[in-house]
Structure formats: C-alpha cells, structure tokens
Design brief:
The protein has 177 residues and is of the alpha/beta class. The chain has one domain: YqgF/RNase H-like domain (Nucleotidyltransferase, domain 5), CATH 3.30.420. Helices cover 49% and strands 18% of the residues. The protein has a five-stranded mixed β-sheet with strand order 3-2-1-4-5, with helices on both faces. The two termini are 31 Å apart.
C-alpha cells in the first residue's frame, strides 16, 4: 500500500481537490488534519488547451501547502460512461501528476456542480454571483467526499486511468487531448 494512502487512513494527509473545467480549475485544500476541505481559488485560462500556467499554479499551491495527494474530480455520464470531458480530465490528471510528481486520485464528481449550485441557493448567494464560485465549491465537494471516504471506510475506489484512456481512444480513433 502506498505511503500517502497509509497517511490518509491515519487522518494526517494534506490534499488538494481539483474541479477541471473547459476554462477553469476550481481548487480546494484539506485542513492540516486532513478532515475538512476549504476552497482556495479558481484558476482561469483564456483557452481550453492553454494549460502551462494552470499546471504551474497547481504545482505552486501543492508545494506551498506541502500536499501529498491531489484529488481530481472525474466527470462521467450519469450511466458511468467515459465521455470526451472524462477523457480530457484523465489526460489533465496525467499532466498534473507529471508536473507535481504527486499521486493523482480520481474522484467521481457526478452532480457536484449541481450540489454546489444548490448550496449557493440555500445560502442565498445571488444568482449572478454563483458562476463566480461554483467551480471552487465543486472542488470542495470533491475533496470532502474523498476525505470522508478515507476517514470512514479507509477504502478509496481506484480508477485505472490508463485503461479508460485506451478505451476512449479505441472508440474514438484520432482523438487528441
């Protein structure tokens, strides 16, 4: 078992949560005890494929916070299928892992944006302000789901990213992330 997972099971892991979108990445971080997720920021970019500065900022945040694992929300269809967005997220995860040299754990993010929007509605965040915060709150929900799972069961579902990428590429020949 990997060292970071053992530390997570013991409740002492520091993690970043990421919600990867077409032009934004919502970022959250665990507290020092690895119990709660707090929103940090939203990294914005002008173009979907311009990731160099985004990756540099994630690396900087990971180093500043002495992060041991990155939890990346994995979007799937409601039926659990791999979509183009899933594929792009998996490829982004590979880039994050390569840039930070940290393990990347994929976490099912279905409905986190919906839950984030509902949370803002319930707390009376003005409708025009919701788009500003939705990615950061979604990143918090992704990370909090992971932290709760680690603390309650100790079993984090594994995602075979390479197999999902290969399956998508075989179904969509000529795919380029």
């Amino acid at each position: 078992m990997e060292e970071w997972f053992m530390m997570a099971a013991a409740g002492s892991i520091r993690a970043l949560g990421l919600d990867f979108g077409a032009k934004t990445v919502g970022v959250s971080a665990s507290d020092a005890l690895g119990v709660t997720a707090q929103g940090l920021e939203i990294i914005r970019r002008k173009s979907e494929n311009k990731l160099r500065q985004t990756l540099a900022r994630i690396d900087e945040l990971a180093r500043e916070r002495r992060v041991e694992v990155i939890v990346l929300g994995l979007p799937r269809t409601m039926g659990g299928k791999v979509s183009e967005r899933t594929y792009r997220t998996l490829k982004f995860g590979e880039m994050v892992q390569k840039r930070t040299n940290l393990p990347v754990v994929y976490w099912d993010e279905r409905l986190t944006t919906v839950a984030a929007d509902r949370t803002m509605q319930a707390t009376a965040v003005a409708e025009q302000d919701r788009k500003t915060y939705v990615d950061e709150i979604a990143a918090m929900l992704i990370l909090q789901g992971y932290l709760d799972c680690v603390h309650h069961s100790g079993n984090v579902p594994e995602t075979d990213a390479e197999a999902l990428i290969a399956a998508y590429e075989s179904e969509h020949p000529g795919t380029v992330a």
